[in-house]
Amino acid sequence: MKKNKSILYIVVIIVGLVIVNTISSSVYQRFDLTKDHRYTLSDASKSLISDLDSPLIIDVFLEGDFPSEFRLLQTEVKQIVDEFQLASNQIFVNYIDPVEDETTRQQYIEQLTNAGLEPYINTDNSTGKVTQDIIFPWAFASYKDQTLKIPLLKKSITQGLQEQINNSVQALEYAFADGFSKLVNAKAKKIAILKGNGELDDLYIADFLKTVKPYYNLAQFTLDSVATNPQGTLDNLTYYDLIIAAKPSVPFTENEKLVLDQYTMNGGKSLWLTESVVMDKDSLLNDAGTGVSIMRDLHLNDFFFKYGVRINPTLVKDLYSAPIMLSIGEGSQAQMQPIQWQYSPLAASNPNHSITKNLNLVKFDFASPIDTLKNGIKKSILLQSSPKSKLEGAPTTISLANVTNSPNEESYSLGPQNLAVLLEGEFSSVYDQRVLPFKVKNFKSKSTATKMVVISDGDLIKNEVIRNRPQELGFDQLTGKSFGNKEFLLNSVNYLLDDSGLINIRSKEINVAFLDAEKIKDNKSTWQFINIALPLILLGLFGFVFNYLRKRKYAA
Q1: For site-directed labelling of 422, which of 82, 89, 198, 537 has its Cα 20 to 30 A away?
Q2: Which residues of 352-381 are buried (b: 16+ CB within 10 A; e: fewer)?
Q3: What whole-number distance in Å separates Cα of residue 77 and Cα of residue 54?
């Protein structure tokens, strides 16, 4: 009887194990218990790879024995790649250490460098001996007949390595999703770069165009034809999903304004980078080091007023501003030094909007304040100057000689000034109940739901040009500081064109905890004692007490 029960018991256990294994093999579930859900892919990321019809190959070169900071990045990369692989069976990954084999090391380094994968040279002197490691924080993604590089490290010359790693970990999902988007999604949306009204030459917006080009179809659009064929110009303009006006300097005619107005009424999106005061740093590069700011009338006041904003003809001066490099001293003693330049506000971003969430400071030059007016349009303030701001009217003389003078901080008390505003809703036509400058086919007095971003400084989109070569937008060559201009503009374009998925991935927050290297160094002996000696002491003490009690028990 007992034997039968034992056999039955064993059979039940075996059958139970088979059932559990069968269920577990067909039902698989992962749980992300991290507070910030860092290992949970966003819906936008999953959507990108949901319809892959060919293998997507990822070659990760962040492989090898690294310092602790890079080991963290290495681990996070593997975690996020694993999540992408679990979401799609068409994703395959290769982890490659390009410097592992001494015989092919130099050849690998040259090939990757020539492909645009700049290595990171990590110098370590924490042990008293200087060592250097060559690290390639990059990956290749290949889909069908296309291959592109994915940066895994967000480099910055103004930040320490730990901060760079932290920012990189936060951006990992976006880095891969952005690359996949360029490979998988065909460019469908069309952007018109307005020309004909003194806008910036392509050389000065080259880095912005280079940034946007992988996502959208770009084309120049000249409004000159409005003079001879206004209706045809309007029909052609409505072909585009978004128009960008980059620092126009020539006034718009009524015919041009009507074309732009009806483009908006038909649901067209627009990004305006315009100014009401004429002043540039180049105007100060003369023997006197002075320039005069004057008002600029582009005949757009009624245009923006009707939509709900007004760009005032004054300049914002801000105590929290970017520096300007000036030569201080005389003759051979002169040295280039960064001096605070109140005409270059460093705008704080709105942390509650997807366009500006987690955005670096955005640099302006000679910006004007924007007033928002009451109407039916929803207005979101995207960028503002600091509370320590003041306004300066035009015309006025601006001199570099005054830069070294200490500002009167009490006069900077006007509070934050709006520098970039998002408008959303159903716009009313500027020409509603007005005589039209030309007859419009199917004139609309009310728009369908649309969007518009108005920025009060055209230089925000302008990249520096050195030796006739455009430089990176948002990077100041003289001071070595990076600003968020490019990311802000890309986010704005994505949002206006309803590509909010990538914005949401980019703004994902992940908190990375690092050990304090200085405290570790200062308290090295203490931590060694706690982690090595103390456990041994406790173990020995436990053994001594255990043996003592055991002997006492059996001796009795």
Answers
A1: 198
A2: ebebbbbbbbbbbbbbbbbebeebebebbb
A3: 23
Cβ–Cβ < 8 Å for 485, 474: yes
Q: Any idea what DSSP says for residue 516?
A: -
Tokens at 366, concatenated: 């000679």
What is residue 149's DSSP assignment? E
Residues 6+ apart with CB under 8 A from 74: 62, 63, 66
Residue of 326, 323, 325, 296 lying closest to 311 (CA atoms): 296
* Domain residue extents for the chain: 37-184, 190-326+336-482, 517-555
Provide the b/e sequence for 407-431 (b: ≥16 CB within 10 Å): eeeeebebebbbbbbbbbbebbbbb
Q: What is the largest CA-CA distance in the chain?
A: 116
The topology (CATH level 3) of 37-184 is Glutaredoxin (3.40.30)
Task: Tell me the fold of 190-326+336-482.
Answer: Rossmann fold (3.40.50)
Which tens digits make up the pLDDT trace of 144-189? Answer: 888 999 999 887 655 677 888 888 888 888 889 888 888 888 778 9
pLDDT in tens, 203-255: 999 999 999 998 899 999 999 889 899 999 999 999 999 999 999 999 999 99
Tell me, what DSSP letter sits at residue 411? G
Q: What percent of the chain has pLDDT over 70?
A: 87
